[in-house]
């Protein structure tokens, strides 16, 4: 894989030239940033920025005003190559809170292992309706606990909205142990790009280390190949990065979410 070429494609297709995630969101290019604004259940935030040090604080303040006026918490996705070099410090000074960094990883879809190879007692259930979206939320809760109850509810609403408004741009599955959801994973497509994005995959503690996440990656990779997407992209946590390494994913850069809560 040509690292420079893939990073350039990623930066242009998914950040600089990003398209709206759905009918309820809009993408704007204003003052050196690309931002998305949607409902409270959508992802709201700054996707890309290339700003000069002398204007950076004013640009940050403008994003705060914009999202605060809309009543939205929002995220500034800071990538390791974004400018200016001290943008992280400026965001913190403006009242943002840094969340754990993630590793942007990419793999060619046709080079990933076939699958899925599910552990005994687990089956993958396609998510296509409101009942499936509820199972996604329950799987998230099982993986991350009651402390993430609000995020679990938000996830279920977001998935249902995507299935309703843009069903061709999402594939979601729930790993079921009997009648209990133990892992939820989805893939979001960006028409006109080379990339399909993998999201979710958190697994209930008692089912970790058994290959469920790996199986969901293989399942989604097969669908991405069928739809003609060249690359899979993941914002990987420290837990999933070693698994993705073993599957053949390559690190492009790192990204840190900086969150502003009005």
UniProtKB/TrEMBL annotation:
UniProt enzyme class: transferase
CDD domains from the UniProt entry: NAT_SF
Domain N-acetyltransferase: 131-262
Matches recorded under SUPFAM superfamilies: Acyl-CoA N-acyltransferases (Nat)
InterPro entries according to UniProt: Acyl_CoA_acyltransferase, GNAT_dom
EC number from the UniProt entry: 2.3.1.-
Pfam families from the UniProt entry: Acetyltransf_1
Listed GO MF terms: acyltransferase activity
Keywords noted in UniProt: Acyltransferase, Transferase
Name assigned to this protein: GNAT family N-acetyltransferase
């Amino acid at each position: 894989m040509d690292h420079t070429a893939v990073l350039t494609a990623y930066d242009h297709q998914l950040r600089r030239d990003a398209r709206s995630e759905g009918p309820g969101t809009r993408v704007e290019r204003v003052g050196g940033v690309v931002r998305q604004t949607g409902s409270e259940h959508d992802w709201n935030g700054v996707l890309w920025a290339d700003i000069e040090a002398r204007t950076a604080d004013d640009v940050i303040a403008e994003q705060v005003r914009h999202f605060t006026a809309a009543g939205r918490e929002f995220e500034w996705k800071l990538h390791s190559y974004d400018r200016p070099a001290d943008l992280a410090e400026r965001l913190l000074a403006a009242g943002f809170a840094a969340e754990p960094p993630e590793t942007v990883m990419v793999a060619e879809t046709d080079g990933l292992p076939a699958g899925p190879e599910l552990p005994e007692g687990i089956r993958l259930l396609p998510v296509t309706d409101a009942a499936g979206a509820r199972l996604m939320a329950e799987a998230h809760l099982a993986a991350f606990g009651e402390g993430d109850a609000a995020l679990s509810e938000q996830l279920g609403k977001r998935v249902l909205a995507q299935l309703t408004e843009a069903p061709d741009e999402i594939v979601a599955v729930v790993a079921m142990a009997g009648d209990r959801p133990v892992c939820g994973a989805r893939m979001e497509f960006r028409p006109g790009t080379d990339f399909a994005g993998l999201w979710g995959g958190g697994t209930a503690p008692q089912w970790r280390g058994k290959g469920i996440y790996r199986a969901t990656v293989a399942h989604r990779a097969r669908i991405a190949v069928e739809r003609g997407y060249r690359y899979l992209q993941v914002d990987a946590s420290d837990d999933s990065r070693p698994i993705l390494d073993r599957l053949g994913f390559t690190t492009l850069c790192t990204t840190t979410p900086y969150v502003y809560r009005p």
